[in-house]
Design brief:
The chain has helices spanning 5-13, 35-44, 48-52, 62-66, 105-112, 144-169, and strands at 70-76, 82-87, 90-92, 95-101, 115-121, 132-138, 173-180. By secondary structure, it is of the alpha+beta class. It has a single domain (5-11, 26-180), classed as Roll (Pnp Oxidase, Chain A). It is globular and about 40 Å long.
């Protein structure tokens, strides 16, 4: 389940909680400039495999994601239409962590349906292996430092430069925790 803004404010006000990125001062709801336009253009030029990933056999694993630089995260609209996005994902204790804009479409879709598919992919989203079923949720502020540490260790300087740009632009970001596991038989 995705954490709403009021819960996030409660978590950040609790004593003993620390933001995952101390230099970040996001403006609630702020997105990357031209994010919507860029997402629409990327969807139009997406590789064909990206559109068919939901129909592929679900034989992948979290370890397979850990061996590749990027992962294809597929969320589902209310009508069941799959929407895939390439993301950076890092594995820790059997769970994968991803960082995203809080106002991104994937988070809106996760509020309605926490089921996701994950598969290794290229930077443009071309699948490099089979997907696997999982459930995703947005992390509370108190849980974010682990996710930040895991992603920072995995991706190093390139990610740090990207995240500093997001911090300077004051983009409202959050972390997702993805737990591998088969979906209930009645949910798909």
């Amino acid at each position: 389940m995705v954490t709403d803004d009021s819960e996030r404010r409660e978590n950040s006000a609790r004593p003993g909680t620390h933001p995952a990125r101390p230099g970040a001062h996001p403006v609630p709801g702020r997105r990357l400039p031209a994010a919507l336009f860029g997402a629409r253009m990327a969807a139009r030029s997406a590789p064909a495999g990206l559109r068919t990933i939901a129909d592929a056999p679900r034989t992948g694993s979290a370890e397979q994601i850990a061996r590749h630089k990027r992962a294809l995260l597929t969320t589902f609209r209310r009508d069941g239409t799959p929407v895939s996005t390439p993301v950076w994902a890092a594995l820790a204790d059997g769970r994968l962590y991803v960082r995203s804009e809080r106002a991104a479409g994937k988070l809106k879709r996760l509020r309605n349906d926490p089921r996701v598919l994950l598969a290794p992919c290229t930077v443009r989203g071309k699948p490099l292996g089979a997907p696997f079923e999982a459930h995703a949720r947005a992390l509370a502020t108190a849980e974010e430092p682990l996710a930040e540490r895991v992603l920072a260790n995995r991706y190093g300087l390139g990610r740090e430069l990207f995240e500093r740009a997001m911090d300077l632009l004051r983009v409202d970001m959050c972390f997702l925790e993805i737990t591998p596991g088969a979906w209930d038989s009645g949910s798909g």
